[in-house]
Amino acid sequence: MAHEQREQHEQQGPAHHHGPGPGPGTDIDWVEMAPRLEAHAELFAPLYERVLSWLGREVTEPGLIVDLGSGPGVVSCLFAEVFPGARIVAVDSSPPLLERARERAERLGHGDRFGTLCGELPDVVNELDYPADLLWAGRSVHHLGDQRAALAAFAERLAPGGTLAVMEGGLPARFLPRHLGFGRPGLDARLDVLDAEWFARMRAELPGSVAETEDWAALLRAAGLRHPRSRGFLLDLPAPASDRARAYAAATLARLRDGFADALDDGDRATLDRLLDPDDPAGVHRRPDLFVLAAHTVHTAVRPV
Question: Who contacts 29 (Cβ-Cβ below 8 Å, separation ≥6)?
């Protein structure tokens, strides 16, 4: 599953809202979905740029960077831009999305040092031609049943002195003030509860799922890595929101409205319906106070030399 799809039903990301999304075996039309995934990842580009700037101070002159769960390659191409001396490999299980990634890399002038690898994580990392100096897993690890085993597999594919960077956790996205001017205040908090419950069910139903304390520093150390560090990164897009930000907010709320319809009370369903009405001045498509505020956390550790 591509990480831009995860941005879409959690980011991402895709914002931290996960929300119900396609389940195992769901027939997903990646060709149709790809433009929306790219738009959402591009919205978060300022956050990713700050992440990559930080990584650039941690990882100097990498030869190979691997994007684990690349989707259509928005972040992969940012790596190519920030690290002009590196070869980039985008890894994903969707051939159509990898084709989009290749096309994007060619369009941006990175095609001569951009490759792709199609397969399922974590096993596909064994097909890499040589060890990586930087492995990036952007919100992909929590979709793997045994997170500890996945991190160990990733660590084995690092070159000595190489860095594994895992983006997991953060804070739920916010788009609106606490009191919308209608409905019952605190809608975000109630959606957060439903979201957390859905996420727990999703994790429990993954093949080979292992319940794990998500102490990422400890998990990285258990994978044989050293010097774990964590840092949060903020996306702050203030009001008035751009059309792209409005589209992202609308898509996120629509997914939550549809996925949690049976768990929402009548009042919250009516509030979400009004927020999603493109003709309502108080809806997310038109209201002047819409913003996007989200935080992602990146955890890094290094393979001993």
Answer: none
Contact 291, 178 (CB under 8 A): no
Helix (H, G, I), strand (E, B) or coil at 194: helix
Number of C-beta neighbours around residue 5 at 10 A: 31
Tens of pLDDT along the chain (305 residues)?
444 433 433 333 333 455 555 443 345 577 788 888 899 999 999 999 999 999 999 899 999 999 999 999 999 999 999 999 999 999 999 999 999 999 999 999 999 999 999 999 999 999 999 999 999 999 999 999 999 999 999 999 999 999 999 999 999 999 999 999 999 999 999 999 999 999 999 999 999 999 999 999 999 999 999 999 999 999 999 999 999 999 999 999 999 999 999 999 999 999 999 999 999 999 999 999 999 999 999 999 999 99
pTM of the model: 0.91
What is the SS3 assignment for 87? strand
CA angle 154, 158, 161 (to 5 degrees): 135
Cα 155 to Cα 254: distance, rounded to the nearest angstrom: 38
What's the CA gap between 69 and 112, in Å, rounded?
21
